[in-house]
Every structure is written in C-alpha cells, then in structure tokens.
Design goal:
Length: 112
C-alpha cells in the first residue's frame, strides 16, 4: 500500500482536467488556468495579468474573468486568430470566457 501522498498527488491535475471539461465550474469573476497539453506550468496571477512558462509548442486553455487586451509570447504581442494553425496563435470565445493559446516560446503573458 502506498503513502497518502502517492494517492493524492494527482489530485490537482484532476481538478484542472475537470475544469477543462466543465468550463462553467470555475467562478465567472476569477481567471483560472484550466488545461495544458504537456506539464504543469509556472503561473503568476495578478489583477491585470496572467504570466506563465510552459514547454514550447504547448497548447493551453484558460478560463478568464474578462477578455484579454493583449497576449504576448516571448515578449512579442500576438494578434488573435480564428484557429490555432500557426505555431504561435490564440483565440478567445467571449461567450464561454475561454482563451486557447498555442505558443512556440515558453513565456506567455495575458494582459487584461
């Protein structure tokens, strides 16, 4: 039998996966990092920005409290797109408040 930690350590990952599947669960007035393709990123939240680092080539889903005013990848501003075909692109759905980001540089900043 394993330790309690070995049984509960996947718990945060399960919460993120659930939020990604049920995007209306996080409170609408809070921003949350909901899903990523690779590993758990290093995230910093503030009232005006979410900054994080993850693996290059990742795709992440964020549930936002308000629409993004700017998305920057590697310190460069990226224009919104209609799909994620480009190696660095993002799209926002105002109805669901979901932001999808695909990026080729590890550093991502979302400003409000």
């Amino acid at each position: 039998m394993g330790s309690w930690y070995s049984l509960t350590s996947p718990f945060p990952r399960y919460i993120y996966q659930t939020w990604a599947a049920c995007r209306n669960w996080p409170p609408p007035d809070q921003s949350h990092f909901a899903a990523q393709r690779d590993r758990d990123p290093e995230i910093t939240y503030s009232d005006r920005r979410i900054s994080y680092q993850s693996l290059p080539g990742s795709i992440e889903l964020l549930k936002l409290a308000k629409p993004p005013s700017q998305v920057s990848v590697g310190g460069r501003s990226v224009a919104a797109a209609h799909n994620l075909d480009a190696p660095t692109s993002w799209m926002y759905n105002p109805k669901s408040q979901v932001l999808l980001i695909r990026h080729s540089d590890p550093q991502v900043d979302v400003d409000f």
